[in-house]
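Final report, Chapter 2: Outcomes

The project's central promise was a pipeline that accepts a single protein chain and returns its three-dimensional structure in a standardized token representation, suitable for archiving and comparison. That pipeline is now operational. To close this chapter, we reproduce one record exactly as it appears in the project archive, with the input sequence first and the structure output second.
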Amino acid sequence: MRTESLGGLRVRITGGDDREGGGDGPAIVLMHGFGAPGDDLVSLARVVDAPRGARFVFPEAPHAIPGFGDGRAWWMLDMERIARLALGDTADMSREVPAGLAEARARVSAMLDAADQALKPSKLVIGGFSQGAMLACDVALRTERPLAALVMLSGTFVAADEWTPLMNRRTGLPVFLSHGSADRLLPFALSERLRDALASAGLGVTWSPFRGGHEIPPSVLDGLGTFLRRVLGG
């Protein structure tokens, strides 16, 4: 694995012909969730059965979070609200546009531009976990960058009034969407609504629900590997 700066973001790159991103295979960009360190998802490169030659790119969010150690954020959140969610608050956040989302999208777009030049991937998959999944969806819907697939692991539906009219622009795009039925941070029902909206717009949704909370269980990792081999070949 190697670490470098792409478009102003620190990224960790692994896989490929030399385990440091070498070769000309596809790139799979996965963004971590709120409060996690920049290397939080790196282990997925070892356990997801992606096609041979695939490169994994793990960007680190730009914002440090006071009191969270090495935890990072793509945009800051209301900590009191997070506490209420953990206690069972099921308020509908689907129409909210997070403050900082546009800035995060611009940063990731710059990173993807730099990754195109540095890695020259044959195909590109973007995705993430939780806040990283929401950001990946926002980038997919608001840009015209060619994508092989979108991966959303335990994300949720936000900016619905803005996202929904944009979904038709991505008709046919394969999407892998997973969520735990006992997730107390991001309600399962909102993920179902996102699934239905994407499918209604003609995106090819692979739905992977599971019994569990805010996590990525083995069943999802197995399903993700199958999905990636199908959309990328191999």
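Archive annotation: Residues 2-87+98-232 form a domain with the Rossmann fold fold (CATH 3.40.50.1820).
This record, like all others produced under the grant, will remain available to the consortium after the project formally closes.
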